[in-house]
Amino acid sequence: MRKIDAVLWDYDGTLVNSVPKNIDTTIQILSVVAPRLTNGNLPDCLKTEEAYHIANHQAKNWQDLYVNYYGMTEEEMLEAGPLWTEFQLKNTTPVDLFSEIVQTIKAIDLPQGICSQNSSENIMGVLNKYQISSKMNAVIGYDDVPNNMQKPFPYGGIKCLEQIYDRLEKKTIIYVGDHEGDVEFARNIERELCENSKVIAVTAMYSGANTKEWKYQPDFEIKTPSELLEIINTLNSNL
Fold it and tell me: Measuring CA to CA, which residue among 22, 38, 39 is closest to residue 71?
């Protein structure tokens, strides 16, 4: 393995605590595509932040979350997916970066990027608010990826790396996420890259992830964002 070349981040649950906004946005989408699941019939996992965290980390992906946790039909789920960006952008519920995120991002002296299923416009607004947009060399959101190529397909990760590098050979990348799907995403990116490249999966435990029963296991787990700096320093110093 070579020294770390870049750090890619997930957004929701990794950089920001977006649960209040995500719950509110989801309820608004339900009112359009599945009004039967609103008001007194609201899914239990949308009633509290704690319940949302549990469901979100248990679900394999957003489609699984919508169908098997919210109770949507397959048709309703397919209708709801494309509405996410529009409703996220219109929603004014504030989101906050997790503690230590700003300091950690500023301390990383490597190219960085974001691969997320949130809107890239939404993400840039938060990065600008906290004055860290200049630290991100690429931001790929839901609206930058075809519907059938969303995570855990590697499309968004490859697109993010192509905005950072002219060539993708011999690269060692860290991908930080909070979900089993993020680990699978990292593995799929590595398979898509040349065989002499490596993608290291790091799971952010500070937003409620529980990796014990995950099929895809991360290479590292961090309880605070700043622990990522220790991992980078340790890996680089051992080479």
Answer: 38
Amino acid 235: pLDDT = 92
Q: Residue 185: what pLDDT?
A: 97
- Compute the mean pLDDT over every residue in the chain, rounded to the nearest whole number: 94
What tokens were used for 58?
């248990």
Please provide residue 96's backbone torsions phi and psi, each rounded to the nearest 5 degrees: -120, 140
3-state secondary structure of 195: coil
Buried b / exposed e over 143-156, threshold 16 CB at 10 Å, is bbbeeeebbbbbbb
239 falls in which pLDDT band (50, 70, 90)?
low
Look up residue 223 and give its DSSP letter: S
Confidence check: pLDDT of 89 > 90: no
* pLDDT score at 1: 60
Residue whose entry in the numeric block shows the structure tokens 């607004």:
125
3-class secondary-structure state, position 26: helix
High-pLDDT (> 70) share of the chain, %: 99
Q: Give first-to-last CA distance, the chain, whole Å.
A: 7
Instruction: Report the pLDDT value the prediction gives residue 195, as an integer from 0 to 100.
Output: 75
The 3-state secondary structure of 27-83, one letter per residue: HHHHHHHCHHHCHHHCCHHHCCHHHHHHHHHHCCCHHHHHHHHCCCCHHHHHHHHHH
Question: Which run of H or E residues covers position 88?
Answer: helix 84-90
Element (H, E) at 17: strand 16-17
Nearest CA to 169 among 209, 206, 198, 212? 198
